[in-house]
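Notes to self after the Tuesday call (sharing in case useful).
The group wants a holo model before anyone commits to mutagenesis around the pocket. I volunteered. Ligand is pantoate. Logging inputs and output together so the record is complete.
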Amino acid sequence: MQDISLSLRKQNETIGFVPTMGYLHKGHISLIEKAKKDCTKVILSIFVNPTQFGKGEDYEKYPKDLNRDKILAETAGSDYVFVPSVGEMYAENFKASVKVKELDFVMCGSFRPGHFEGVCTVVAKLFNIALPHRAYFGLKDYQQYLIIKKMVEDLNFPLQIVGCPIIREDDGVAMSSRNKYLSKSERKNAAILVECLNQAANLIKGGFTNLEDIHNTMCEKLSGNPYVSKVDYFDFRDSETLENISSIDKHDFKRSGSNLLIACAIRIGGTRLIDNMVFDIGRVT
Ligand code: PAF
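Result:
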C-alpha cells in the first residue's frame, strides 16, 4: 500500500483516505464521497483494530462483510481498499504507541481506558502507510476526531483532517455499524439518544443557562427508559478543549474559539451507543 501511495504522490495525485473498521454504512459512504470530491484518488482501509477494544468489549463479534464492503466502497468512489491482517499491522515485537494526553481522560476515554491510545497508534500507522493528503472522519466520534486532529498537529503529520457531518436514519438515530446488534425494540428506543440531545439544545435556545440542571433532567429521562441499561455520560463540554461546562454564562467560549459540545454515551442492552451535537453558542447568546 505504501509503495502504491508513494507512486501516486510521484504522479501528483491527491490522496484522500478513509480509515474504517468495515461493515460500511451510509456514514462511511458519505466520507468516501466527500474524499472523492476533494481528491483525485481515494483509499479506504478496513481493519478491526484489536488494540482499541477493552476486555469484554465487542472485538470478537464486531460485524464483518468484506465482499459487500468492497462493492460499496468501489461504487462510492474508492480507488483502493486496504485490508491488512492483524499480523501485518502488529508484528510480534511491536512496542510503539501514540497517546494524546488529557483529551483522552474524559468522556469515552474514562469508560474505555486505553481506547484512544489504540486508535491513535493504529491511525498513525495507517497515515504512514497510506500517505494521504487528507483524511476523513465522521463527527459522530467527535472525541476521536478531536484527538486525531491534535495528534496530527502535535506530531507534524503532513496532512489535513476533515471532519464530516453525522449521517442519521429517518428517526434521527446516528448511523453506526453497532446498530446491527440492536433488536427491533432496542433499535426503536435508541432514538432516545438524539431526542435528549435535541431537547437539551432546545432548552438552551429557550434561554436555560444552567447546564447541570439540564444534565440531571436528561440523565433521569435516559435512565427511566426500560431499554437503557446504563448511562455512561451526558456531558456539556467545550468543543475544542473538552473542558466540562456547568453554566453557559460562566464559560469563556471566545478564549478557545470554540462551541458547546453536547455528547452522550449510553448502553441499550449490551450495545454501547454514542451521539453528539456541536452547538453554535454564538447564535444563542
Ligand atoms: O472510527 C473507526 O472506525 C476507528 O476508530 C478507526 C478510526 C478506523 C481506527 O481504528
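Two things stood out.
The pocket of pantoate is lined by residues 19-21, 49, 52, 119, 122-123, 141, 144 (CB under 6 Å).
The mean pLDDT is 96.
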